[in-house]
Amino acid sequence: MNYEQVARIVQTHFSDGLVIVIGSGLSLAEGVPGMANLADALVKASDDLSEQDKPNWEEIKSELVKGIGLESALSRRQPTASVEQWIKNRICDILMPAELEIISDIALGRKVLRLSDFLRAPRKISTFQCFCGHEKAANRAA
């Protein structure tokens, strides 16, 4: 399926009132580390920070250690520009290998993303069907 075909499918769905919301759960289901994994890895990787950045990071890290989610911790404890860049670099270090493995598996034909399966066989489900039982909607869509 090429870009134009995907774009046409997505545009058709948006034009008929159906909206597909894609969040991080889709990536997580395909093997990309989620926010909890990223937070854990950041806590463990904090030894390469500069002395100047350590106090700011320790405030953020203390929130993570308490079990506060990564996004909430970063909202509560604003990172400095250099700590924010450090966080971005560490997250890239964590995500890139997982994403590369998934992309390689797709390219080699070992994996098909769940969203790809969904887009290949688009179904029209009315708003009414979505609010009725899931089994009824699934049977009508098939």
- The radius of gyration over CA amounts to 20 Å
Give, in order, the helices and strands.
HHHHHHHHH
Strand content: under 5%
Separation of termini? 21 Å
How many structurally independent domains? Answer: 2
Helical percent range? 55-70%
Layout of strands and helices, then pairs:
Elements: H1 3-15, H2 24-29, H3 35-44, H4 54-65, H5 70-76, H6 81-107, H7 114-120, H8 127-131, H9 134-141
Helix pairs in contact: 4-5
Entry keywords:
142 residues
Account of the protein in words:
This protein is mainly α and 142 residues long. It folds into two domains: 1-30 and 113-142, no CATH class; 35-110, no CATH class. The chain has nine helices and no strands.
Nutshell version of this structure?
The protein is an all-alpha fold and 142 residues long. Helices cover 67% and strands 0% of the residues. It has two domains: 60 residues, no CATH class; 76 residues, no CATH class.
